[in-house]
Design a protein that fits this description.
It is a single chain. The chain is mainly alpha-helical and about 180 residues long. It has a domain of about 90 residues: RNA polymerase sigma factor, region 2, helix turn helix motif (Rna Polymerase Sigma Factor, Chain: A, Orthogonal Bundle), CATH 1.10.1740.10. About 75% of the residues lie in helices and about 0% in strands.
Length: about 180
């Protein structure tokens, strides 16, 4: 991720630039998490970086009302999630980045084993894409981002029990589909 020096400079030129939260500290604290969120949805490094930048632009736009945000982490994740989904809607599901699957495979194993593992990851990603939207979203936030049930509920605007049910169904359906392939 880029340096945060420019953020302070940009804030100094903006009217009423005394945010309730230090933007540079916020970028340092959350940019990696937000990048992972966006990357898990988009599977493109440059697209994910753009989403992270857009999230912090939203923070600047809402800097005067940040004190009303109850949970900054969930609020930022929700923004990143929604922006990533918006970008993904513009792409076809078939445009899955093969390098994403290769990046998940271990770099310490022999090339043929790494290729098989990358193909297996690609198969899993393809099956995740086939899940119903709500189940896919819950599974991505839980498995890839390791968010808890309460955080997922906050991000998606659902109850915790609905999140648990969706997660259970998603895991069962994914397990069933992957076992059917083997």
């Amino acid at each position: 991720m880029e340096s945060t020096e420019g953020c302070s400079l940009a804030l100094s030129f903006m009217e009423d630039a005394r945010p309730a939260v230090d933007l540079a500290a916020m970028v340092d604290a959350y940019s990696t998490l937000l990048f992972r969120i966006a990357y898990s949805v988009l599977r493109s490094r440059t697209e994910a970086e753009d989403v992270v930048q857009d999230v912090f632009l939203r923070v600047l736009e809402h800097r005067l009302s940040l004190s009303t945000v109850r949970d900054m982490r969930v609020w930022l994740i929700r923004i990143a999630w929604n922006l990533a989904l918006d970008r993904k809607r513009r792409k076809r599901p078939e445009q899955l980045d093969e390098s994403f699957a290769r990046s998940l495979a271990s770099g310490t194993m022999p090339a043929d084993a790494a290729m098989e593992e990358a193909q297996r990851f690609q198969s899993v990603l393809r099956e995740i894409e086939r899940l119903p939207k709500a189940q896919r979203h819950v599974l991505l936030l839980s498995a890839i981002e390791e968010l808890g049930t309460a955080e997922i509920a906050g991000v998606l605007g659902r109850s915790e029990s609905a999140v648990r049910a969706l997660l259970s169904r998603a895991r069962a359906r994914l397990r069933e589909r992957l076992e059917g392939e083997a």
